[in-house]
Amino acid sequence: MSLLREAERCIANQGTHATLNAFITTRQHSGPWLQRVRDAETRRTQGTSKSAVDGRLIAIKDNICTRDLPTTCASNALDEFASPFNATVVEQLENAGAVVTGKTNLDEFGMGSHSVHSRFGPVKSLRRDRNEESLSAGGSSGGSAVAVATTQCHAALGTDTGGSVRLPAAYTGTVGFKPSYGLISRWGVVAYANSLDTVGIMGRDVSSVNDIFGVLNRPDLRDPTSLSSFTRSRIDANLRTPALASRATSPLKIGVPIEYNISELSPSVLCAWSRSLAYMRRQGHSIHPVSLPTTKLALSAYYVLAPAEASSNLARYDGVRYGNSISDASPGDYIYASTRGVGFGSEVKRRILLGAFSLSADAMENYFIQAQRIRRLVQHDFDTVFRACQPLAFGSAVKNMDSEKNGIDVLICPTAPSPPPRISSFMGNETVTSHPHAYMNDVFTVPASLAGLPAISIPVTVDSFVDSGDVALAGIQIIGQYGDDRLVLKVAEQLDGKRL
């Protein structure tokens, strides 16, 4: 298909699927950007394309700054904020010839698991059976996921703090990739939790995700968390040892974390997981059970650490430096309190309060410091089971026990414990109801985020589920050692698009 025809189809689908609420802002249907697609088509014909994404329409999550389109973070605190610059990832895509087609809907400031905490209304996912009731698109990058799933764009960028790219991918049948922390620049991304935030990539297949990763995987001096060229070379050298280099031609050792086989795991997800492992075994790879004992504590630690960082980051939206000032506050009122009370939604307020409490003098030792210790244990669990060593560790921590001999190459596990719930199960009369179960959806995605590891969710279709003749679709997650992103993508390609 020509680039121009693909772009026109994406634009047409944006109108067809407008009720799904995937986009907050879109480009006009004609204009200079369409000429950029035509120019890319000419370059493709001449064999001089700038990159694999030259002329492709890419959607951008609306917490990533764009100069030509407003950035809102789906919040009243940023009402049509016009950024004076593009985020580094947007700049890199445009330099590679990609065309930004619009800004996608999300949970306010990225805080949520279902993309319903938005001032623009919830994102809705297409139902795959005769029941027309809308399903959750996952969160917080639900708009990006639905835009990709319904071909409203070629691919999309999201952000992943505790699973916000992978969970929507699992719920919508798309591919969602969270790279190793620090590989992709976060400069120009509105922060939620700095030590966890990662720009992620969503596409309909692993190949398109891989193409975009190749464009964005660059150091950025403007981002203090971006890995330098020297550190990237050190990571590559760590993966070129004889034992690890042989993985290109020899079978892989695939780990199965026993702690992920929880009682809440739905039969359809369990079936997709077991059949995925059986398929990989038929390809010649070996399957090995491993233990990650701190997994059961990871979710609790995450919901202490992330809100704590969020409460600090969002303090700047005070109506003086950033955010919308409440100018009609009566004498004696506090502009700061009024601004934050009107600007933030209920879920953001809830997490700010939770974070502020865990950082208070009386609670810090019992909550925040303990959560940091758990995070270190989670990282240690992963380092113990992987064959590749942690490239950023020093001294005795660099080598785990006989890692290159006994360790595994990647982990394969579910992305979410159950299929997507109905939106009506947590929304009534246009009001979102808070429920503890909403936070449990991230139980399988949070551990990799705490450790900064690369992880990807791919859709796996299971035919004749439990001999009932039904078809089940589940997200299967592949996790690798820090810096081993290419291996994660390689394994994902082997499972991509498979009906098992």
UniProtKB/TrEMBL annotation:
Keyword Protein biosynthesis: yes
InterPro entries per UniProt: Amidase (IPR000120), Amidase_CS (IPR020556), Amidase_dom (IPR023631), AS_sf (IPR036928), GatA (IPR004412)
One function term, GO molecular function aspect: glutaminyl-tRNA synthase (glutamine-hydrolyzing) activity
Catalyses which reaction(s): L-glutamyl-tRNA(Gln) + L-glutamine + ATP + H2O = L-glutaminyl-tRNA(Gln) + L-glutamate + ADP + phosphate + H(+)
UniProt domain Amidase: residue ranges: 16-489
Domain of life: Eukaryota
Catalytic site positions: 61 (charge relay system), 140 (charge relay system), 164 (acyl-ester intermediate)
Enzyme class: ligase
PROSITE patterns: AMIDASES
A biological process from GO: glutaminyl-tRNAGln biosynthesis via transamidation
Keyword ATP-binding: yes
Annotated EC: 6.3.5.7
Compartments where found: Mitochondrion
HAMAP family given in the database record: GatA
Assembly information from the UniProt record: Subunit of the heterotrimeric GatCAB amidotransferase (AdT) complex, composed of A, B and C subunits.
Record function comment: Allows the formation of correctly charged Gln-tRNA(Gln) through the transamidation of misacylated Glu-tRNA(Gln) in the mitochondria. The reaction takes place in the presence of glutamine and ATP through an activated gamma-phospho-Glu-tRNA(Gln).
UniProt cross-references to PANTHER family, sorted A to Z: GLUTAMYL-TRNA(GLN) AMIDOTRANSFERASE SUBUNIT A, MITOCHONDRIAL, TRANSAMIDASE
Family stated for the protein in its record: Belongs to the amidase family. GatA subfamily.
Name of the protein described by the UniProt record: Glutamyl-tRNA(Gln) amidotransferase subunit A, mitochondrial
